[in-house]
Amino acid sequence: MRRVVITGRGAISPLGHSWEAVLAHLRSGRNAVQRFAEWDAYKGLNTRLGAAAQPFELPPHYNRKATRSMGRVAVMAVRATEMALEDAGLLGDPLLRSGRVGISYGSSAGTPSSMSDFGRMLTEMDTQSINATTYIKMMSHTAPVNIGVFFGLTGRVITTSSACTSGSQGLGYAYETIKSGRQVAMVAGGCEEMHVTAATVFDTLFATSSANDRPESTPRPFDVDRDGLVVGEGACTLILEDLEHAQARGAPILAEIVGYGTNSDGRHVTQPNVDTMAVAMQLALEDAQLPPEAICYVNAHGTATDHGDIAESQATQRIFGSRMPISSLKSYTGHTLGACGALEAWISCEMMREGWFAPTVNLQQVDPRCGELDYLIGGGREIDGEYCMSNNFAFGGINTSLVLRRWV
């Protein structure tokens, strides 16, 4: 079995697009949540809060012809991928067109405005709102398809449209593909475009924060006074590569993926299951051939929803006991949905390299119903460790767990 390393990263996020920018934001103890006044127009909507990606510029070669099949979600994914390929030293490399490099990438859905165009067609009984690229922008695999076309990738394409585990499954399946020798490298990750419809999905479940006049105070994962999640957006691409291949070409190495576990609850679409969440973590540890004691930190899914935080923390305690340091990056970025699995895995790798892990913003008093864990509260913490874990859980009862190794 081959070893799999991360040789490039690119991100578009609410905290910035470089590690330096993200780290500065994490150390500031501020979130990126803001109020969207335009959402006041929607009757019945409780939340007005979101975390938009910071502005980014597109190079001149992102012309009309190159982007005609892309909505915002695909544009973010393609640009993040370009940054990751450049970081890995692979941008423009003939390897990309060799069939030896594939894509494993996902989002919850395509661009919402294109979906609205079809809705307009049905209500107005008129196809004027539809053109040749409307469906391409709308389809759930619009991101990996556009990545493949833009960079001429001819390897396998794995589309991971699995809501909040789209990004983590993107990484996990890419890892397994390289580990088994099917591809030498993979473009992996996830993305999501923020839209009022995404907020509405959770709003109808009474799972969104309504602290609309205090955006700096929410979300607050694991806190006794948490009142729900905040939606966010972004894209994160990691270049995964066979270790021997990476070393042979002198590639920079960020970290190693050593374990991946995924399963499903098989019980309920939206209510999490402590038992199967814990099994996913155990599967990742077994794949990595590591005992729980080897993990120095767990990056939680931590959405700030009532049942989700309780189930996740109890499952984590079941595997690691009360000693485990844990925090949630969604307290800074909001819930970036399809992007979160990749974005949080990347930041976890960087924090492990930094030897400093960010706390959960706004966490003041842990809900006693949550597991007894070492919650990072207040300031960050310096931890010198070789392995960390990043967990994500999605609608449909899909659970994922990644074990990451610091590269030295």
Description:
It is a single chain. The chain has 13 helices and 16 strands. With 408 residues, it is α/β, with parallel strands linked by helices. The protein has two domains: 4-248, Thiolase/Chalcone synthase (Peroxisomal Thiolase, Chain A, domain 1, 3-Layer(aba) Sandwich), CATH 3.40.47.10; 256-406, Peroxisomal Thiolase, Chain A, domain 1, CATH 3.40.47.10. A hairpin with a 3-residue loop joins strand 15 (387-394) and strand 16. The radius of gyration is 20 Å and the shape is globular.
Q: How do the strands of the widest beta sheet line up side by side?
A: 5-4-6-8-1-9-16-15-10-11-13
Task: Examine the secondary-structure arrangement and name the CATH architecture of the largest domain.
Answer: 3-Layer(aba) Sandwich
Give the overall form.
globular
Percent helix among the residues?
A: 25-40%
CATH evolutionary superfamily of the largest domain: Thiolase/Chalcone synthase
Q: How many helical elements?
A: 13
- The percentage of residues in β strands lies in 15-25%
Structural class determined from secondary elements: alpha/beta
CATH secondary-structure class of the largest domain:
Alpha Beta
| Counted beta strands | 16
- Taken together, the total number of domains comes to 2
Quote the average pLDDT: 96
Uncertain residue segments:
none
